[in-house]
Amino acid sequence: MTPGDDGAGRQSGLSRRRLLAGIGGVGAVGMASGLGTGAYLADRETFADNVFGAGSVELIVNEEVTDGTFAVDVSDIDRGHGGTETFDIEVRTNPARVWLATDCPAAGDALADAIEVDVAVDRESVTDGYRPLAEVERELVAGERIDAGCLGPDDRVTVEVNWQLPGDAPDEVAGEATDLTFRLYAEQCRHVAEADAAASNPFADRVCEGSDDDCPACVEFGKADDIEAALAVGDVLPLTGLPAGVGAHDIEITAVETKADDEAIGAAFVLRAADGAPGPAVCAVEIKGGRGTERYEIDPAAPATGEVLFAPRKPDSDERHGISHIVVFVCSGDDGDRGDDSSDCVVCDDSAVSLASLDVRYRGDDASVTAVSTGGNTGGTLFEGTLTPGGAFTLFGSDVVRGGNAGNGNAGPDKLGPEVDITVDGGEPISLHVSCSEPLAVGTRFGDGDLFEVTGGTTTDGESLCDSEAI
User: Where on the tree of life does the source sit, at the highest rank (predicted)?
Assistant: First the structure.
């Protein structure tokens, strides 16, 4: 979970932090030499269908033969800072297939939950951009093949590890250290057909404890809206928009952060059923304030948030908006699976459908983001503010100005379209069609490097936007 802070500009105390990003390597050896080292790294005794040819393979990391670990020392990391380390992977003697894997995260490692990592192979992210370190470790523990059809002695694969500590990292990670260990495994390409290569991945069966289908899908459960400014501990807020067949649920406020005027800017809560029993496991929470939304991933999922979750900051300010509503997401199959309710959504691939709003999540580094309506003689600023990784905002059709630009025209129907231009730090505009003349769905990513992701939307008829599986 990545909570916010109180906006008071407190120092994080994270000086002299160390992130150890290791690359451990093992060369694939001839059949006569056995499989002992490889089996140890793969955490199993034998490799089914793993056939080695004669000869040997040497793995090279940054021009040095390796059979151990290379450490990256990152010092003085503080909120909003990060770094990059690059590893050039090569082989000698024989062409080889190469797999990359991580170890499981250590239990109770708060910094691993807070620090975010992006791992790229030849500049293509294998982690879908920045993700919490603990998530990256759980996902890559089963191995990722990184060569493109056998790595030859004259070839090279570059693994780039980027890390950053978000500006709203919790104080509790002060003084903590963590590590990210990558393991490499190489197998000769001779005598193993490419069609059979997948069976040679020695990491394929590795699963981290507590991560196997604990939360196969995180789905929207309900919303607490019309929140009073003076929110207090003990307040009970009923949830609306619950899945069909699910009884009444509410959230009970367990902690509150307020501004000087007592307006609530952050809250912690527990999800519960009408009879007071704990509700389903919460996997994510979105806090709306102003025109923006702050999303928090709850890992491990639980009925209580545990920590205070904050509304977004105001543009170019450390001050936060007051909370306007809270959206709760739960793990599917845990009283939160909507089942056939997905049929209630609307597919946006027909211009007869009009969108009233669109929820978008930002997946890049801290930046100033602006969204304006364009095309069809429209104008109007739909969003403007500073976003941190994972920050979200909503585009409202009611903000579109028709018949002119920059607010000089007449207000039209409360719908988006035909296009929105989004700029990051004043760069080249990223265009998105929002008129449904082209397919658009929850889960759609757009922009260079999938910088943005559509996370929700409503039509002018009040219906929800379907996800990409419905298109």
Answer: Archaea
